[in-house]
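Box S1 | Example of a co-folding query
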Amino acid sequence: MIQIKNLNLTFNPNATNEFKALKNINLHIPKHKLFILKGVSGSGKSTLLSLISALIKPTSGEIKVDDKLIAKLPDFHASRFRSKDIGFIFQSFNLFENLNVAENTALPLIPLKLSQQEINDKVAHAMNLANIAHKKDQTVKDLSGGEKQRCAIARALVNNPKIILCDEPTANLDRNNALAFIEVIKTLKSLEKTIVIATHDPLFESLDFIDKVINIKNGEIV
Ligand SMILES: Nc1ncnc2c1ncn2[C@@H]1O[C@H](COP(=O)(O)OP(=O)(O)OP(=O)(O)O)[C@@H](O)[C@H]1O
Ligand SMILES: [Mg+2]
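Box S1 (continued) | Returned holo structure for adenosine-5'-triphosphate
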């Protein structure tokens, strides 16, 4: 599903502040697997997720998703690839605080020119999966932290993406909400999503449905 070969990412190449954020990364994440990216702050986890979602391009090496060479995609195709194939769940939820849950969930569908009925069906399905349907009319600014995150999950799922990328998804959650998040991930795994989670939360270390833990140190897989 995700195939990374000899990947290097250097910020500000050839400048005095040149920084090699990722060095010679080789990684294969098969379909329907759940991989954890572990490593201290600054090790390169978020950078790797940005590369997989074609938000940034590598300095050298290749990334294939579903046999598509995504590093070579022009910007327009990269954003289409993201909206179709990738669901991204961030640490800060990046929601529109003044819109309600259903409206936030529907946002990724706007460019797709669907009928209102199709939009309603997809939004209802995603909110159910994320366990937030009971708050669908509530303005996001009035949600609890855990509920905001479930709204962000609904938005990430609304396009039915094959790949779910999570960046420190439990960093702003208390233990109960973190456990609830893990249940959602378990459901997504059973729906055969390919999932990558960057985290240092020890809660993830003992889960029996994780396929592999990848350790990153100073931009290298160890
Ligand atoms: N646009 C940029 N320009 C220069 N350096 C950058 C840029 N983006 C990230 N970096 C550097 O690359 C390194 C890796 O950053 P990254 O955000 O991937 O770390 P991380 O493992 O996600 O850390 P954290 O656990 O704190 O989120 C850091 O040292 C960071 O300062
Ligand atoms: Mg990060």
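The longest helix spans residues 175-190. The domain at 2-221 is CATH 3.40.50.300 (Rossmann fold).
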